[in-house]
Amino acid sequence: MKIRIINTVVTATVGCVSFLLVMMSLGAQAQSVSTQSIKGRVPTASGNILIQGPGGLVIEDNVAVSLSAAPAQFSVSPDTTDLILSDSDGDLGLTAEVDSAAGTLIWTSHQTPLTAEQVARAFGAEFAGRTLTVRASAPVTVSSRDGDPRSGTQTLHSATYTLHVPELPLPVTALLVGGAEFPVTSGFPTQGFVGATFQVRLGDTVANNALYTWSTQSDWVSVDSQGRVSFMATPSSTHKTVVIKAIDKVGGGESIYTFTVNEWFIHQGSVAGTASQADSACAAQSGGNYAVPSWTRLSAGPGSARAGDGPLWNAWGSLSAYGAGWHDYSYWARETQGGNRYDVYLASGNVGNNPPASLWFITCSQSL
């Protein structure tokens, strides 16, 4: 009996030890498995990347571009607004980054890709009045706050944009001055006075002028929305050149007219005087070296025609039409003949010769 009891105890003890060893082994295996990373799937993005223009603004489909801009000034936008981010493992904190520097744009005209030279040139140099398309592609990296792997990179594309290149801006074709029309090659105006006004014409009709935004940087000149230029003050010799700009409201193309005023006229309003009084009045003027002008600076002579490069009446016509105190009457001129003094009738450009004691209106001029 004693021997059986001992065998039973030994057997039970061995069984317990074996069970403990098995359990410890399983625990170690479980601990080893729990410390290994579980590989999931990368986060991804869908949707379209965007394209930005020269100013950094995202472009829209079916809009006009500036004639002065070039395709090379467009690029892939870093904007991720239109991207949809997802993670099949449910990882959170998803963000996306567009590699704009590695992006590419494909420009086409009538399904033909633009060459590198065409991409570098302004739209207006070759594609005025035409339609172009552009599509972009770029690497996009999507990252998650947790999970493994935490990021993935893929190539996404933009939508295909249709962009319209406007027609070239209309050229300055004529200058409309007091009922006359002068070519732009006339150099008009070279003379001026406060209150003088003329209109710049674009294309074949002044109706085109409303399609443009007009401006000038000269502080003594103004230009309105219809291209009408007005002289508001006396220019200095260093600011006598004027640049008038007309910018196409649709395409941004720019037309320019430049002129230089070399001679400036003033008058004494409704005050009439003798020839000597005219000389004194002009000599007394401050702010310049004024004198009674030569009759050749007032008119090209009786019966002469209007001319943009002519003297005062031939260039501007009847000065009373501009208001500002001018009269349709005779003004003293500098030259004498015999005992008489020349005068010019500024309603028609006729030249007279009258006694210096006559009472005529007074105008003075100076070179700028």
From TrEMBL:
Q: Per its UniProt record, what SUPFAM superfamilies does this chain match?
A: C-type lectin-like (SSF56436), Invasin/intimin cell-adhesion fragments (SSF49373)
Q: Which Pfam families match?
A: Invasin_D4
Which residues constitute the signal peptide according to the record? 1-30
> What range(s) does the Invasin domain occupy?
175-249
Keywords, in A-Z order:
Signal
Q: Which GO terms describe its cellular component?
A: cell outer membrane
Q: What is this protein called?
A: Invasin domain-containing protein
Q: Which source organism does the UniProt entry give? A: Budvicia aquatica
Organism phylogeny: Bacteria, Pseudomonadati, Pseudomonadota, Gammaproteobacteria, Enterobacterales
